[in-house]
Every structure is written in C-alpha cells, then in structure tokens.
Amino acid sequence: MTSSTLTAALRALPKAELHLHIEGTLEPELIFALAQRNQQTLPYPDIASLRAAYSFTNLQSFLDLYYAGAQVLQTEQDFYDMSMAYLQRVHQDGAVHVEIMFDPQTHTSRGIDIEVVFAGLARALRQARTELGLSSYLIMSFLRHLSEADAFACLESALPLREQYADLWIAIGLDSAELGNPPEKFQRVFERCKELGFRLVAHAGEEGPADYVRDALDLLQVERIDHGIRSEEDPALMMRLRSQATPLTVCPLSNLRLKVVNDLTQHNLKRLLDQGLCVTINSDDPAYFGGYLLDNYTQTIDALDLTDVEIRQLAANSINASFLPPEQKQHWLSKISQSPLPA
Ligand code: ADE
Ligand code: ZN
C-alpha cells in the first residue's frame, strides 16, 4: 500500500489529466439528484443498486450504462454541476491542468441544444480557472459508433460557437465503441478539423488492435493517442511512438474495470515507460471505474512498484503531452523537478 506520506507527495506533485470524459464523472448520487430535479424516473430503485450495476465485461457493457446515465443531463445548470464536481475533485488530487472530452452527440440526439452543453461546461471551467487556478481545455469528441455524416453534422453545429469558446475548445477527439469502427471511417472529418486548426486526438488500441493506433496516426493525423496500450503488439509501431514522442494517455483503472487487463500487476504501463514512450496516467471515466486521478497514480505505483524517477517522469509527461503553451509547460516542469518525493 502506498504510504500516506507518498500519497501526500503525489497530491502535491503538479500533474495534468488529459484523458477524461466529463460524462464519465457523473456519480450515482448526482445521477439521482439530477433525475429528481428533471422529473425523470431511473430504472434503479436507489443509488446503491445503480452503483452495483457497475460491473463490466468489456467496453460496450460500460458504454451502455454510460450513455443511459448521461440522459439525466438536461439543462445548462446540469452540465455546470457535473463539471464543477469533477473540477473540485481533481483539484484536490493536485491536478493543475485538465483537458476534458465531451460528447455532444450523446446530448443533441436527445434534443438538447449544443449551446446548452457548451455553456454549462464553459461556465464551470472558467470559474475553476479563476477560483481554483486550474487551467483547462475542451476536446469535442465524435462518437465512432455513429456515421461520418453525423460527425460532420456535429462539427457544423458547433462551429458557430467556436469564437465564443475559443479560450477552451481547442481540440477534437474520437471515442465510443472501437472495434468495427476503425479510424478510416473518420478520415475526412478529421482532415477538415485539421484544416480548421484544431488539435487532434483519438482513442485507439484500447480494445482495438495496434493497426488502429497506426491508422489514427497516419489517417487521422492525431498528435496524441488515448489508451494505445495494444501498441506493444507491433514493434515497428513502438519504435515510431518512441521516436516521434507520441503521448499515450493511459487509464489503468479503466483498463482493469473493462477487462482489458486482468490485474493491475499485469498492466504494461511500466514496460511502455521503460521503452521510452511518453506515457501518462489518467482516469477516463472515474465515476464508473472506481478512482479519480490520484487513485490511478497510487494504485498503479503500488501494483507496478514504480520508482520515484518513474513517478516524476509520468507527471512531467502529462505536462509535456498537454496542449499548454511552452512557457506554462516550463513553469510546471520546473515545479515537478523541485517537488519532493519520499525515498
Ligand atoms: N467513452 C467514454 N469512455 C470511453 C472509453 N474508455 N473508450 C471509448 N469511449 C469512451
Ligand atoms: Zn476514454
């Protein structure tokens, strides 16, 4: 077990969270509170029985519950409340910067205006900047189980809001069911997003094969891979990730809960790190996977017996892999190098 001294030092270590789905931060308590506020009936009698349903066999079994849970989000205040709860929580974990994915299609398909989604998220993010000193960006993500035409429609509906949210919305992502929805399906829409000047990321190599990671780099031209742990199956790809310093936003507790790995001690994070890849630690959908950012650090450090050098490297990677401007990266990197870790 991580000692309380180490946990305190990890909390004080500046770090960024780069792989976080805001809809995945809806705790059962908040799902019930929002359902009540919006006069919705949930198919669970109480909070405990909803939490008890969080036992997943694979990515799809989780996504079914995740999309169902998101249906309680109706108003700008709902999106604000959800985001503020997460920001306060991750601030307590010692995050200094977060890059948050959100899935507009999950909401617009239920008749929620995309402006409501942006407005609620942005109000919380801007408040957290001023009140908590926590910086953030938004990554608008396309759902890969939907069509290319749907992704284009999502982009078109969001573009009129770009100027209003230019301080936050700087990137595009790709998430949801990976298998059977390869990167090539979204090549044209990512090309358009690149022309528009967005930073690009995509989920790949979570459940899908190493080929999807390569195609995300070649066809989607992403700068960062979300998950990417199956890259290890392709030595040539590993060499490329290392030489290009392509960041992988790894989510250990997610991988455990979605049965991508059987046990945290079997996780390949340390091997990826040892091979010189820019690995970062993140929580993915913390309300569903039993741990926020700091829990992911402590449990991974315990399971893989990571050294102080490796821990500091993970924190530095999270800053280097972020979309922060160079001077802000430098500021946090020097804080990390001065941050004490118990021997
Ligand atoms: N959406 C939310 N969490 C996800 C994950 N782990 N993989 C793909 N899509 C997601
Ligand atoms: Zn994810």
Question: Please, could you describe this protein's structure?
Answer:
The protein is an alpha/beta fold and 343 residues long. 50% of the residues lie in helices and 14% in strands. The chain has an eight-stranded parallel sheet with strand order 1-2-3-4-5-6-7-8. α16 runs antiparallel to α17. Zinc ion is lined by residues 19, 21, 175, 203, 226, 284.
**Alpha-carbon Rg, integer:** 19 Å
Number of domains: 1
Topology-level CATH name = TIM Barrel
| Number of distinct helices | 17
- Element order: H for helix, E for strand: HEHHHHEHHEHEHEHEHEHHEHHHH
Mean pLDDT: 98
Total DSSP E strands: 8
Structural class: alpha/beta
Proportion of residues in β-strands = 5-15%
Approximate helicity band? 40-55%
- What is the fourth-level CATH superfamily? Metal-dependent hydrolases
